[in-house]
Amino acid sequence: EVQLVESGGGLVQPGRSLKLSCAASGFTFSNYYMAWVRQAPKKGLEWVATISTSGSRTYYPDSVKGRFIISRDNAKSSLYLQMNSLKSEDTATYYCARWHTIGYYYFDYWGQGVMVTVSS
Amino acid sequence: DIQMTQSPASLSASLEEIVTITCQASQDIGNWLSWYQQKPGKSPQLLIYGATSLADGVPSRFSGSRSGTQYSLKISRLQVEDIGIYYCLQAYSAPLTFGSGTKLEIK
To answer: Mapping DSSP to helix (H, G, I), strand (E, B) and coil, where does residue B78 land?
Structure first.
């Protein structure tokens, strides 16, 4: 059974940093692209970052480019999101998701999410 | 960026009714579209990929279709467990963009 378990969320002040983790199990982690998607309170879904199988390629939307860094440790089956220079608008639930890239592209599995609150 | 205009924003329907949700892409995205269901308090789950393919384990009352740049998700016979928010996602080009969501309730 595929499982994605996020951790590391919490309350952080504007301008500070926070690192999220996602522990994956139930599949060969190194064979899959992975991603982070967030959802602000009572709002819709927003793609945050994607990383290739080896970690050599990363992709971000303009809203987080230069502030967030996605990374992975295939030996530990873990995905990370380093969030720097946090802003109030980064307040959201952050989901770790597996990005299916054979044939069509889509998120086929999601974690339960971890809440990040940016506030003074 | 590709815009995904989703409608309606909310929908109230009766049990066993047919429900249709649509997403209009701002440009051609081929079949690079997927649909997700988010039940209250839960994470999103994949329903449809490639615009028309049903994901594993998803009931057959769900179906996806495409007409040009308009994409539709149909629930053929609405059930209580179908309440939640539905989102489309385009994966034709970066940045990946979601529709704004459709909140589905039972009348």
So the answer is: coil
Which positions ≥6 away from B3 have C-beta within 8 Å?
Answer: B25, B26, B97
Distance from CA of B73 to the nearest CA of A (A): 16
A118, containing H or E segment? strand A114-118
pLDDT digits over A15-29, tens only?
999 999 999 999 999
- The structure tokens 């999101």 sit at A81
Two tokens at B28?
């051609």
Token pair for B103:
């909140």
**Cβ A107–B89 below 8 Å, yes or no?**
yes
Q: Closest CB to A113: pick one of B36, B43, B98.
A: B43
Strand extents, DSSP E, A1-120? 3-7, 10-12, 18-25, 33-39, 45-51, 58-59, 68-73, 78-83, 92-100, 106-110, 114-118
Chain B residues whose beta carbon lies within 8 Å of the beta carbon of residue A100:
49
- The pLDDT tens digits for B7-25 are 999 999 999 999 999 999 9
Local structure of residue A87 (DSSP, 8 states): -
Residue-wise pLDDT tens digits, B47-85:
999 999 999 999 999 999 999 999 999 999 999 999 999
| CA–CA gap between residue A109 and residue B46 (Å, rounded) | 7
Cα Rg for chain B, rounded, in angstroms?
Answer: 13
